[in-house]
Amino acid sequence: MLAVPRPKSLTRPPRGSRLWVIIFKENINLAAGNVNDQHLRVIHILHMPRALALLQSYTRPALSSSSLRHIIDTDKPAILSQCFQDLPALTKWPQRCYLRKFADHPIEIEVSPLDAPGYGERHEISLGAYLEMLDHQLPYRAYMAQFPLFERIPHLQADVTTPLVEEILRRGEKYSSSTWIGKKSLTPLHHDPKALTNLFIQICGTKRVRMFPPESDRERLWVGEGTLRNTSTVDVWRGEVDLGDGLEGTLRAGDGLIIPKGWWHSVQSDEDLLNISVNWWFKILD
Q: Whose CA is closest to 87, among 283, 279, 284?
């Protein structure tokens, strides 16, 4: 019995089809140009990932206190469209001269190849030096990811505090917050600590998000080991595998996203423009 060889070709199905056919050549010695149908085997058929549904979106007029509680408590992700236009950060932070007032503060950034599928190596740098880096086209990806900026620069906390932010966070016990600054970026598919809900707000630029429910098949997710057991190696932006019923949406400046506990999510920015987000993790109180 022959060992299963590596795939030699991947045939794309007709337009509109949901099947991929992987063709393997037998592991036998053939003269060049002497291959015919009997030397080819169809080993496996993979379903193309189904189209993702759009995330439910709510606008500010629809957000009464009771409807907001319902959105947070239903364990379904939702976009709060243009509900955070009153954040001072939306007008202040895109102006580099404003953030450069805090140039000497140390931060950490991730550095990775442009085509890397996810996390990079972490390096310490000053905020000013990093903003200077972002003024240039880089041969690698640099991203200030999941950094506790308000712990280093408490003054900036006021720029992302509004009555709506406070009302949402009062629904639970606040755990921590992070700030994300970069240009093109990719956060791989993962879930946050399972007890925590995530409020994610876009300050500047555009991000796309793809999400899958907590009950998604972990074998299909190709989950990592050790400290990466909450991270999948599936690239959901290239359609590698059908993960079931997923959701997707686009976040623009002033939009917020409620990520319920346990939901798998990947976030991507493919624009070569300044991109800033903030988020809070909190545990909903019963």
A: 279
CA–CA separation, 49 vs 67, rounded Å? Answer: 33
Give the pLDDT score at 78.
98
Residue (of 21, 63, 185, 46) closest to 113 by Cα position: 185
Q: In this model, does residue 117 exceed pLDDT 80?
A: no
For residue 245, the surrounding DSSP H or E stretch is none
Tell me the domains of the chain and their CATH numbers.
Answer: 9-47 (no CATH), 53-284 (2.60.120.650)
Q: Which amino acid is at 5?
A: P
From start to end of 191-274, where are the E strands? Answer: 197-204, 206-212, 247-252, 256-259, 264-269
Does the pLDDT value for residue 10 go beyond 70? no
Give every strand in the sheet of 206-212, ordered side by side.
53-54, 247-252, 206-212, 264-269, 185-190
Q: Percentage of the chain with pLDDT > 70?
A: 79
179-192 burial, b at 16+ Cβ within 10 Å, e below that, comes to bbbbbbbbbbbbbb
Task: List 108's β-bridge partners, or say none.
Answer: 124
- The three-class DSSP label of residue 252 is strand
Q: Which among 24, 23, 12 has a CA at the least distance from the CA of 48?
A: 12
DSSP 261: T
pLDDT tier, 223 (very low <50, low <70, confident <90, very high otherwise):
confident
pLDDT above 80 (res 228): no
Contact 277, 200 (CB under 8 A): yes
Q: Which residues pair with 208 in a beta bridge?
A: 250, 268
User: 82: burial class by Cβ within 10 Å (0-12, 13-18, 19+)?
Assistant: middle
| pTM tops 0.70 | yes
